Amino acid sequence: MVTPRANWKGYIKFGEVAFPVALYTAASSSERIAFNTLNRKTGNRVRREFVDSETGDPVEREAQVKGFEIEDGRFVVLEPEEVAAAVPDSDKTLKVEAFVPCTEVDDVYFDKPYYLAPDKTGSDAYKLLRDGMKRAKVAAIARTVLFRRLRTLLIRPHGKGLIGSTLNYDYEVRSSEKAFEEMPDLKIEGEMLELAKHIINTKKGEFDPKRFDDRYEEAVAELVKAKMEGRTLPKKKAPTASRPSDLLQALRESAGMSTPAKSKRTAANANAGKGRQKANPAAASKAPSTGGGHQRRAG
């Protein structure tokens, strides 16, 4: 088994206690299927090339420089050494600035997760911080320079160790007001709400990530295998669109509480037949007379 490579090494410091840690990527997309761009005629790989937008001439790497557009067609040029000098200095220390309740940070601020593993020389202090946060049910807010930027991390107990999630800056998180401004102001209650509760209760379970497969990756892998073996995959049937239905009826069907459509039609036809039979004059004339002679008019 290949030993994972640390993305960063430094210290965690809370109060006057400091101990060494290493940061490892907790989630990676490196195992996903990747494609190369080829020349259809030759089958050779195509390489990317930067060209001047006006002259069309290729621009070699050493001739490329960063630029910030201040207006249409005008740029401020930033030399590599100027950019490097603007990067905040790093003391390789994740300094804990506060402990907050685990539920206080909105998930929308979460960026990327990293495992924070202890160095052997600091395992006691590491366990102290981990167990202390578990008991207090809090997470730590810490800051340090990661990957050339000053980043905020939310550090939480995770199994036998700690996990640190980089947080998005406030200006990077979009307001939810725009997303939900068209939301109608409706109050759901009565049978609808009870049915929704019933469906939720019948669908309760536990999160198991192994149950959720990446169907795109599987489909592409199967396609590649089929092409290598010289066979074609069968065409998939077009999915059937769900029939339109009102919300209450859909809830009843989901809860298994609706009467089948066929039974409804049968019952409706039977009721209609009874109504027609009562209103039929011929059927009424065949009914036995209760008077035994001519009917006497009232009055």
From TrEMBL:
Transmembrane portions of the chain: none
SMART domains: Ku78
Keyword tags: ATP-binding, DNA damage, DNA recombination, DNA repair, DNA-binding, Helicase, Hydrolase, Nucleotide-binding, Plasmid
Domain Ku: 56-185
UniProt feature, compositional bias: Low complexity: 278-289
Presence of keyword Ion transport: no
GO molecular function, one term: helicase activity
Chain intervals with Polar residues compositional bias: 256-269
SUBUNIT field: Homodimer. Interacts with LigD.
Physiological role: With LigD forms a non-homologous end joining (NHEJ) DNA repair enzyme, which repairs dsDNA breaks with reduced fidelity. Binds linear dsDNA with 5'- and 3'- overhangs but not closed circular dsDNA nor ssDNA. Recruits and stimulates the ligase activity of LigD.
Protein name as annotated: Non-homologous end joining protein Ku
Originating species: Rhizobium etli 8C-3
